[in-house]
Amino acid sequence: MKILHISDAHLGRAQYGLPEREEDYYNAFREALARGRSADAVLVTGDLFDTRRPPTRAVLRFVEAVEGVGVPIYLIGGNHDFSYVRYRAEAEGCAGGHCHVDTVLKLLDRLRLGRLLCWDSADLGGVWIFGACATPRDYAGEYKRLLQRAPPGAVLAIHQAIEGVRARYPAEEDDFTMPQSVFQGLSHLHIAAGHVHDHFARHPLGAVWAGSLEVWDVGEFETWDYAGGFEKSQERAPKGAVLIDVSGRAVSLKAIPLPESRPLYRVRLHVRDAGELQRAVEEAARLFDKPGAVVRVEVWGTLEEGVKTRQLAAFFTKALHVDVADRSSAPQRAVALRGSAMEELWRLMRERLGDGAEVVVKAMEYLREGEREAAYRLVLKALYD
């Protein structure tokens, strides 16, 4: 029995409001289905749609994509397209357990375009799947009791992060990160997971995340840093699906990578004055201004004059979209924020660390912006180069 594990398609999402990026998400979904043609079933572990009430065109594009697939499709709700709190409230008030949760997933279930498994199981010819829809961490105890409904040795389909998983998104523990204790003591064959966007991320408890089908945000872009010259600091996040092959009590997994949709660049310019900024932007345009590209330019440093974002964006004439973010600070603002205590701290850092003090400050700036990976790479480079 082969199961094509897809997750976090986010159909209907238009990054930066671009219809071209919305189309990229549809194309990725179709491509994932096409590359899993050998599967006997398709399992979508949450966030099929980007919102609980997606635009009609998103639903129609889903219907178009699954026409002719020829195998059953099983769905669970994710935190974007399902509300556990609402589901719980309606389930408590319905008669005889027959609840009609008002979601597009329920509509697909009624139209037999995909079976919704929300605390329910399905027999795929001797292989059981048990679906657990996205549940906030506050209900962890309740969530574990519901998981205990699963048939012994089933494939668990979940839409959660699990404490200890290493991933770019979500980078920090969020409302849908469950404690490891929730999954301990359960009798399951495999955990097919959604919510974490990293393709083929794993957890020692036996969970594997298919990852999102498309790049979600700028934190997953191919990233380049400028400090006198350009250096790549992060590869673009890989995307794909997973083929689960179940034979008896054995499970084997095959990663199915998806091709990149279009160039996605994040360019961070660390500059000291307007002249250096001008040179850096000109070089960035030569390197990254490509037809169809989405480019995020961030300006870092202490500059006498403010950054004119529109003028910088004008250097890019071929790209589909350019987003310029001013992360710089004015010298007078920097001095005012320091005060005498901070000036003394800066003096001590320079005295003890020498040139390394600049690295520490820049790493702190990264951390303040939530860029832990960039801070980590910067410190490693300073230590070992």
3D structure, described in words:
- With 385 residues, the protein is of the alpha/beta class.
- It has 10 helices and 19 strands.
- The strands form 4 sheets. It has a 6-stranded mixed beta sheet, with helices on one face. A 6-stranded mixed beta sheet has the order 5-6-7-10-12-11, covered by helices on one side.
- Helix 1 runs parallel beside helix 2 (56-66) and helix 9 packs antiparallel against helix 10.
- The protein is globular.
- The termini are far apart.
Task: Provide the descriptors you would attach to this structure in a database record.
385 residues; alpha/beta; six-stranded mixed sheet; 10 helices; 32% helix
Mean pLDDT: 89
Low-confidence stretches: 333-338
Rg, nearest Å: 24 Å
Distance from first to last alpha carbon: 50 Å
Oligomer: single chain
The dominant shape is globular
Characterize the main sheet: 6 strands, mixed
Order of the strands making up the biggest sheet: 4-3-2-1-15-16
How much of the polypeptide forms β-strand, as a percent range? Answer: 15-25%
Helix count, DSSP H or I runs of 4 or more residues: 10
Give the strand tally.
19
Proportion in helices: 25-40%
Order of helices and strands: EHEHEHHEEEHEEEEEEEEEEEHEHEHHH
Q: What class do helices, strands and sheet pairing give?
A: alpha/beta
Topology summary:
Blueprint: E1 2-6, H1 19-35, E2 41-45, H2 56-66, E3 73-76, H3 84-93, H4 104-110, E4 115-116, E5 120-123, E6 128-132, H5 140-147, E7 154-159, E8 161-162, E9 177-178, E10 188-194, E11 201-203, E12 207-209, E13 222-226, E14 230-234, E15 240-247, E16 250-257, E17 264-270, H6 274-288, E18 294-300, H7 309-313, E19 321-326, H8 331-353, H9 356-368, H10 372-384
Helix pairs in contact: 1-2, 9-10
